[in-house]
Design a protein that fits this description.
Alpha-D-Glucose-1,6-Bisphosphate, Chain A, domain 4, START-like_dom_sf, alpha+beta, 2 helices
């Protein structure tokens, strides 16, 4: 049987300033949902941001580190591996990291790395399904980020 892939890496060039892109990626769980956060409910529980999306469910995200305008990282509870009243362990989460680089002409290169799939609690099937859905999800989310950053009114 093949080992479960541990990481997803993506990058995108956005025609917006680093400051503009930072203002979007520095919000914990900005990637939850389909880009329309108007119906989402957000709350804080201890160190965790909890995002309730009526279409896609509940997401728990905790800031893990940041260097303004350059780097942000988050711990993201994958799936419903633990109940909302249970403190997630590191094995219940993946690490999502974003790097921003200013390009000539005022554009920004965004690189995302999500890692930790191979050590998630649960079955190999759960880990494979998680990485498959997140692989597709990051393609969509980076397109949403690009649209939001390049069109301030979005």
């Amino acid at each position: 049987m093949n080992a479960v892939q541990d990481r997803i890496e993506r990058e995108i060039t956005i025609n917006a300033s680093v400051e503009r892109v930072w203002s979007l990626i520095s919000v914990p769980g900005w990637w939850a949902g389909d880009g329309d956060a108007s119906e989402q409910k957000r709350r804080t529980e201890g160190e965790w941001s909890v995002i309730e999306d009526p279409k896609y469910g509940t997401f728990r995200v905790r800031p893990a580190g940041s260097e303004p305008h350059r780097y942000a990282s988050y711990r993201w509870v994958v799936g419903e591996s633990v109940g909302v009243d249970v403190e997630p362990s590191e094995e219940d989460t993946t690490l999502v990291e974003f790097w921003l680089s200013e390009l000539t002409g005022g554009a920004t290169l965004v690189r995302v790395l999500e890692s930790g799939f191979a050590s998630l609690t649960g079955s190999d099937e759960h880990r494979r399904l998680s990485i498959d859905s997140h692989t597709d999800g990051w393609r969509q989310q980076l397109d949403i980020l690009k649209a939001r950053a390049e069109h301030v009114a979005v």
